[in-house]
Amino acid sequence: MSIKNNRGITMIALVVTIILLIILAGISISVGIDISQEAQFDNIQTYLLLIQTKCEQLVNDKVIGNIDESGLYGEKQSDGWYKLSQGELNDIGVEKAKASDGYYVNYDSDEVQVKYEKGIEHDGQVLHYLSEMLGDSEQ
Q: How would you classify the pairing of strands 82-83 and 103-106?
């Protein structure tokens, strides 16, 4: 009767296993970071869409005479943009948005424009305006 000599896992098999685990972990982390960045971009875009929609309603109320300029959201800046406060962002329904990041509205153009002063990186570019974030998909 012959007894086999089982030495367990060899050093080469152990190194190969560790390398494969490192590669899988790297891919998983990379995918997770990409998903997180895309979710953050989608959140900011949603905030800006909500702000734009609510401000368009205010413009319509102003046109038909229900409110005057004092009823518009924001503190008027010298360049014609209105900076939104945290209270106004809360009223609009974007409580998680931080006023310190700089949310602005321009009521003077043909359509209400919305700007995110802090900007957010997407596809290698830093975007500040909702129209840039929407791109050609909704214009």
A: antiparallel
Query: pLDDT digits over 102-139, tens only?
Result: 999 998 867 889 999 999 998 889 999 999 998 844 43
Q: How many helices (H) and strands (E) does the chain have?
A: 3, 5
Residue 32 has φ and ψ, to the nearest 5°, of -65, -40
Does residue 107 lie in a domain region? yes
Q: Which domain holds residue 110?
A: 35-137
User: Which residues lie across from 83 on neighbouring strands?
Assistant: 75, 104
Domains identified in the chain, total number: 1
The angle subtended at Cα 137 by Cα 136 and Cα 139, nearest 5°, is 60
